[in-house]
Write a structure and sequence with these properties.
Length: 177
Amino acid sequence: MTIQRTPNQIDQQGSVEAMIQVFTTGGTIDKLYYDANSEFEIGDSLLPELLKEANVSGEFLVTGLLRKDSLEITDNDRSLIREAVIESRADRILITHGTDTMPDTAAVLADIKDKTIVLFGSMQPARMRRSDAVFNLGFAWAVASTKEPGVYVAMNGEVFEAGAVRKNLKAQRFERS
């Protein structure tokens, strides 16, 4: 489990009021490609580096939960994510997630009412030059910082509520379902 904190460390009493908890689960955002056949594996999360690149100044805590392609995420993995969200002392949570099954995980979290939970990812790995990862991270951070409690998917400049979103594979975008 990887944990990072901003230079403004959480105070001695463990105050998390202004902190955003980030859980990483893998997905395209953390993929490493090795050859022209698109062979890949999920690498270490770049989230701490991406937060720095996005010039995020708020306090955050990054915790690695999984390193999986979302097509490999199981019901047990979703239970692990749900438990981590419930047990987190933070009221605002970001979750990196692969795009193929992101709506499924959002639906599993939908009945958590006392936290603002935002799932996001990218269509291209963060390690690629033309990735949407930094934009999606910044957008998701803004959504987590401003929305009322609920579960949201934030992708490509749009916000969707859990249970009302699907990935359009042909168009490579998310849309209301």
